[in-house]
Amino acid sequence: MRKEKKAYTRSWPQRLFYVFLRVTARLVAVSLYRIRVFGRENWPAEGGALVCANHQGFFDPVLVGLCCERQLSFLAKKSLFKFPLKGLIETLNAIPVNRAGTGLDGLKETLKRLRGGDMVLIFPEGTRSENGDIGNLKPGFIAVARKGKAPIVPVVFDGSFQAWPKWQLLPSIGVVHVLIGTPITADEMQSLSDEQLLAKLQDQMHAMFDEVRYSRARSINPRLHTADKTQFA
Fold it and tell me: For the whole prediction, is pTM greater than 0.85?
């Protein structure tokens, strides 16, 4: 007999705390950033999904969470599960991972949530960008997406690096544009090798980055013309 998937659910205190943090973060974000979001229609309305985003700055997980009406699960380094962040991280029900990868426990929990219909956010570059550009994606997400039988939702933003890079203690006021891309479905993944899937997501995120970087630049300097778009590719 086929085993029925168990839906992943959060406790009501976790759901309530997530909403509280989202409202608080939205107030902070609106105060600091001019944020524009494109492609909201590409968020899956239901079911599990692996959200793969580029990693420019410290505020990135919050930015992705603000752009999605559904609640997300986050991966967090095991080193964060201690004072003073331990209570916050645990209440958000984050998935602990190590620096080398998800680790066996982290992988099992990620798959459990994906199969249970949850959306999990990862940063496949593995670290924050040194210059704002998208680096090479690490292939670890491939096994997670395949085993979880979940679509991959690419998310790309520009401006987070300028607002809060990894070496800056506090954020600056800035302009951030976010683009949610067309998901790569589980059926599409079946027809691709691991190398092809890695290349597909890398190419898609680079194309999205060119688009969102241009839209951000255009919002800062409206005199930019379409012909100038080539300098952002």
Answer: yes
